Amino acid sequence: MKILIFGDSIVWGAFDLEKGGWAERLKEKILETTSKTMSPKDFYPYNFGMESDDSETLLYRFKKQIDICERLEPNREYILLFAIGTNDSAISNGKSETSTNKFLENIKLLITQAKKVTDNIWFIGLTNVDESKTCPVFFDKRLSWKNKNIEEYNLIIEKICKEEMVNFISLWNLLTKEDLFDGLHPNAEGHRKIFERVKDKLKELENLK
């Protein structure tokens, strides 16, 4: 069984200077708990997080990546984790980078594609930000993130997951200002909190206790 984790820079692990992000912490935990009884290839998480990824770019690369995986290892069982939407919710020139209608469409299409691979699909919800540092962000003065806007996109994900009978893990209000490196990305403590929340929700998976 292979766990594939898709998402943006938070999945990739930006600004966790201790362990490289919540997805890497999850990988470490799984390898730690399975190494005594299984080969890492039998139950192994792959981190496909990419900086600046949004729902549109993820749709484009998801099918390509899955095709490669299935070609290399046919008949492999998959668990798919998605954490996407923060970049879609960014505000530029007074409007969101991705409209809510387009975002809803993209998430539905992503779930449709994912269901062709497995029924074991999880969406990780979006995280709140420190608006005193994200309006705008220091690395791009054209972009701002506001909690009201992010929450709207988070609720879209949650609603679609409920309709499509897909697992949803809420992270909303999990992080404090002290858990954020730049107001937007979690620091090491923020990533640890996300890891713990995701791990607790995935406990039903074999060998992840």
**Strand residues, percent:** 5-15%
Judged by helices, strands and strand pairing, the structural class is alpha/beta
Number of helices: 7
Strand order of the largest sheet: 2-1-3-6-8
Sheet with the most strands, sense and barrel status = 5 strands, parallel
Pattern of helices and strands: EHHEHEEEHEHEHEH
Radius of gyration, Cα only, in angstroms? 17 Å
Q: What characteristic shape results from the CA principal axes?
A: globular
Count of separate structural domains: 1
Q: What is the highest CATH level, the class?
A: Alpha Beta
The CATH superfamily name is SGNH hydrolase
Question: Separation of termini?
Answer: 16 Å
Assigned CATH architecture = 3-Layer(aba) Sandwich
Looking at the structure, the CATH topology is Rossmann fold
* Strand count: 8
Mean pLDDT: 93
Oligomer kind: single chain
Helical content stands at 40-55%
Low-confidence stretches are none
Please tag this protein with its features:
8 strands, Rossmann fold, 209 residues, alpha/beta
Nutshell version of this structure?
This protein has helices at 9-12, 22-34, 55-72, 100-115, 131-134, 147-164, 188-201, and strands at 2-7, 44-49, 78-83, 91-92, 95-96, 121-124, 143-144, 167-169.
Write a structural description:
With 209 residues, the protein is of the alpha/beta class. The protein has a single domain (2-201), classed as 3-Layer(aba) Sandwich (Rossmann fold), CATH 3.40.50. The chain has seven helices and eight strands. The protein has helices at 9-12, 22-34, 55-72, 100-115, 131-134, 147-164, 188-201, and strands at residues 2-7, 44-49, 78-83, 91-92, 95-96, 121-124, 143-144, 167-169. The strands form two sheets. It has a five-stranded parallel beta sheet, with helices on both faces. Strands 5-4-7 form a three-stranded antiparallel beta sheet, with no helix packed on it. Strand 4 and strand 5 form a beta hairpin. Helix 2 packs across helix 7. The radius of gyration is 17 Å and the shape is globular. The model has no long low-confidence stretch (mean pLDDT 93).
